[in-house]
Amino acid sequence: MSVLTPEQLAIKQAAKDFVAQHIIPRAGEFDRAGEFHPYLLEAAKASKIFAMAVPKEYGGLDYDSVTQALVLEEWGYGCAGMGTTLAASILSMDSVLVAGTDEQKRRYFTPMLNTEIGAFGLTEPGAGSDAGAGKTTAVRDGDDYVINGSKCWITNGGVATVYVIYALTDPARGAKGLSAFIIERGRPGFTIGTVDHKLGIRSSNTVELLLKDVRIPAANLLGKEGDGMKIAMKTLDLARPAIAALSVGLAQRALDECVKHLQKRFPDKPQPGQTLQFKLADMQIQVEAARQVLHHTMALRQAGVPFSKESAISKTFCSDVAMSVSSQAVSLMGSYGYTSELGKYMRDSKIMQIYEGTNQIQRLVISRAVLAPAPVAVPALKAGE
Ligand code: COS
After folding, report:
1. Would the CB of 175 count as within 6 Å of ligand 1?
2. What is the residue with the minimal CA distance to atom 14 of ligand 1?
3. In this structure, which residue's CA is closest to atom 22 in ligand 1?
4. Can you give the residue range of the structural domain that contains 284?
């Protein structure tokens, strides 16, 4: 029984089919190689994979938020590394959705509709959790800005064609002097630095970006000078549930593979003992609860009501569930879980608790909302209601 609409179920099924055909069969190979492979984007061309997050007026499909979560969950189910590649591209688009002009949106979303990918550059060596503490600068020079600095741990950084990069236009004002810019790949002075080798999500590309006197047109500024921190925070509100969705998919996959393994290993024992039954039931309860928290957040986002707290809750809860369920799955499979490809789910889960704001930062956001809740606007009843 499902409360999803027939259209949502059809989209979910199409995403499942794509993942079964293109992602699951290659996930182990790309994970072992430990690097991004362009196969994913080639495969995604026909399905215009990013169109779901692009508004209709720019040629996209503009799926509602719950539907986007359904698709993201399937990507996470297939491979959290490849899912990360896709979700990080949508993360970069979110900044343009939040603050872009009509012309900027058209310019940024067109490559996405051709299955090129984007990257979001906020983090710096000294500015991770403290997002406003960056050192990268953007100095106005006539009709241009000149950008200098570096960014680290940037997903898709080495393979994107368009980037949203955050830089200080007024360093003296700290976070209030932060601004957001679109930067196209290939601008002189914009180079790729160290490539990171990771514990999990190994088929995604994570790099350092180096910017030395990179000149971009002033028209590439998103919003106004000094709007950067607010744009980044609104972007992350939109994007954190995507990590929640990847996490739900990842957790469900770990559980499903664990069940398959147990059934194969003990073929003459179709019903495991009650201890194991209860364990599997608890794992499914966790996954299902995480899915519902995510869908609730997406329903709020779709309704256009404030959802920062719920965005942080869903990211935290779902990623903690992915870590817990995948780790329990490895334990239940014993040495087989530890030595086979199935250990990948546990390795992939760890980053879900770290990127797009660590779960400690999410708890800070949540506790701030708990300590100073926003007033709830209750619509007045009309006569007769
Ligand atoms: N929507 C819109 N604006 C927001 C906002 C939101 N959800 N959250 C904060 N802001 C605004 C604030 O209103 C404030 O603006 P004013 O100074 O004009 O009031 C500004 O942004 C700074 O907010 P705040 O004062 O809360 O910033 P802090 O430095 O205290 O902390 C945290 C902000 C820690 C929450 C932020 O730095 C953060 O999210 N860090 C994690 C960064 C992250 O997720 N990095 C991952 C990168 S992608 S892998």
Report:
1. yes
2. 230
3. 229
4. 229-371
**350 pLDDT above the threshold of 60:** yes
CA 131 to ligand 1: nearest atom: 37
Which DSSP category does 204 fall into? Answer: S
Catalytic residue among 208, 257, 310, 356: 356
Confirm whether 384 is domain-assigned.
no
Q: Nearest-CA neighbor of 252 among 101, 69, 119?
A: 69
Closest by CA to 177, choosing from 222, 224, 226, 127, is 226
Cβ(181) to ligand 1 under 6 A? no
Q: Which of 122, 129, 80, 103 is nearest to 250 (CA)?
A: 80
Task: Indicate whether 77 and 201 sit together in one domain.
Answer: no
Q: What does the alpha-carbon distance between residue 159 and residue 66 come to, in Å, rounded to a whole number? A: 28
310 is catalytic: no
On average, the pLDDT of the chain sits at: 95
The predicted model gives 110-117 an average pLDDT of 91
Q: Give distance in angstroms: CA of 229 to centre of ligand 1.
A: 6
Report the nearest-CA residue for atom 36 of ligand 1.
131
pLDDT tens-digit series, residues 138-163 = 999 999 999 999 999 999 999 999 99
The verdict on residue 275 lying in a domain is: yes
Tokens representing 93? 């688009």
Boundary-marking domain end, from 97, 117, 137: 117
Q: Considering only CA atoms, which residue is closest to atom 40 of ligand 1?
A: 129
Whether 104 and 216 share a structural domain: no
* Sign of the alpha-carbon torsion through 316, 372, 297, 105: negative
The pLDDT value given to residue 269 = 75
pLDDT category at 317 given cuts 50, 70, 90 is: very high
pLDDT in tens, 8-36: 999 999 999 999 999 999 999 999 999 99
Same domain? For 215 and 272 the reply is no
Q: Are residues 219 and 258 both part of a single domain?
A: no
Question: Is residue 230 within 6 Å of ligand 1 at its C-beta?
Answer: yes
> Are residues 210 and 244 located together in one domain of the fold?
no
